[in-house]
Amino acid sequence: MATVYQINKGINKPIEFKGLKAQYIIYLSIGLVILLLLFSTMYVLGINIIICLFTIAIIGSFLFLSVFRLSHKFGEHGLMKFSAKRKVPQFLKSSSREVFLKLKKGKELENGRSN
What we know:
The chain is mostly helical. The chain has helices at residues 23-44, 49-74, 78-87, 98-110; strands spanning 16-17, 20-21.
């Protein structure tokens, strides 16, 4: 009798939870843990519970909106690409031509030419 195996068709797909993709799930979870710690420290310090809840609700809603906005705007890898693109310099400034002359000599040596 032949055994029938089911194939998991979502193997190479990114993790997605309620519209959040890939690393944004981790960003949201870290933010929620920080909010929990903030609420507990405010409560232990004796701040009024209404003020604590109001503050955490405002910060939490801002956290949810910003993480969902980033997830929809940049997608799975877009935020990393965006931050990497910002780190690329607009131009290179050099005070001497020595680097470029060494490059030219290196190419001549690779081609088998010598001066």
